[in-house]
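Note to self: keep these together.
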Amino acid sequence: MATETQNKNEFENKMGDKVNYYQKLILEYYEPKLQFYLEQTNLLKQELEQFNELREKIFLIQENNLVKLKTQVEIGPNYYVQAIIEDTTKIFVNVGLGFHVEFTLPEALKFIDKKTQLISNKMNKIHAQTMDIQATIKLIYFAIEEALKLPEKKKSQIIF
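Structure:
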């Protein structure tokens, strides 16, 4: 009888250790990874919005045949200065890594189309990775929950 109680206590300790291990795995590995992917998605969404806004402004310039443009340029957080664009036939576009390239408006539109497609593809990949991580987390929690619900006879059959 004493060995049966001792075996039960050992099993419960092992089960508790396994549960703690998997909870720690989720908290220290999967949750930070998930958070990273969500942050990357938000950054990509912002970049996509900026390119879409630029595309709309280029269309506005082309549709209205604007040669000269008066605008406000942000030089810091909520600090704007008035600017006059003398020649609207060309535009500087941030192509990444701090590099700006001078494009004609049609060239800029082609670049924006390619860049937005790349961003969308990257967002789709990150979304798939995010879904995989979320599914893994749910699966681990479900397995833990099921393992803790099982009657004593069934728990001995569990292999983590």
